[in-house]
Write a structure and sequence with these properties.
Blueprint lengths: L3 H14 L14 H7 L1 H18 L4 H17 L8 H12 L5 H13 L5 H6 L7 H27 L24 H25 L6 H21 L4
């Protein structure tokens, strides 16, 4: 374990410089004291990632890096054959996978954990405005949607980057369903934009592969349409990001 002052510094470093890459957390809600008291596993994962980044910068010691890494990865190993009962466990594994040199297997575990908890249904529930929800229920649903999109995005990036089949096949999902929620964060905009771009890339890649290397009018027509789609994506998000 690390000293309280060191832990707070690592947490604040993560939120300031690491969080935006996989924006699983809500900076206004997941404060140091609240987060530490609510989820030891995810808290340890955050400290481990922050220590790793700071160690490469020469701003923390090897002892701190080892202590935080052993704590987080020790809990992570215990999740392999245990039922997933808390969303923070999914978040913790996702964070560790995103910042690992070999995160492909861990991202697959995060995907399975998310599916086991039914997080893939969160966006559909958000689109259904017929049900009244309490503040706690509304926040939990947005957290579930954010976590699912982060897992979905990471699985695709890790799979493609490692030349492996994508576990969670890109399909149309209502990614903008939760941006209007009072519990949405500024970084949710980047997450949704990334997911939409990922969907375009996946569709374009599959279509080009189906042409078998032929360059004809059909291929050129598709390229023009794809360029239009990407320009439309850029125009849609240019003023937001």
């Amino acid at each position: 374990m690390v000293a309280e002052a060191e832990a707070r510094e690592l947490f604040e470093f993560y939120m300031a410089y690491c969080h935006a890459f996989i924006p699983l957390l809500d900076p206004t809600y997941d404060t140091y004291a609240e987060f530490k008291g609510r989820t030891q596993f995810c808290f340890d994962a955050v400290l481990s990632v922050a220590a790793r980044v700071k160690y490469t910068q020469g701003t923390t010691s090897l002892e701190v890096l080892r202590a935080t890494s052993e704590e987080a990865h020790g809990i992570a190993r215990s999740t392999l054959f245990a039922a997933t009962v808390r969303i923070e466990a999914v978040q913790a594994v996702t964070i560790l996978a995103a910042w690992s040199d070999k995160g492909y297997l861990a991202s697959g575990l995060a995907s399975r954990m998310a599916l086991e908890m039914g997080l893939n249904r969160a966006l559909e529930k958000l689109e259904d405005g017929s049900k009244e929800r309490t503040e706690a229920e509304g926040r939990d649903l947005v957290v579930s949607a954010r976590t699912w999109l982060s897992v979905y995005y990471l699985d695709y990036v890790m799979s493609v980057g490692n030349g492996r089949p994508v576990l969670l096949s890109p399909t149309h999902i209502p990614t903008r369903a939760f941006l209007g929620s009072p519990y949405a964060t500024k970084t949710d905009i980047k997450l949704v934009a990334d997911i939409e771009l990922l969907s375009h890339k996946s569709r374009i890649g599959e279509s080009i592969a189906s042409f078998g290397g032929a360059v004809d009018e059909r291929t050129l027509g598709f390229v023009r349409r794809a360029r239009g789609d990407l320009e439309g994506w850029f125009a849609s998000w240019d003023g937001e990001l």
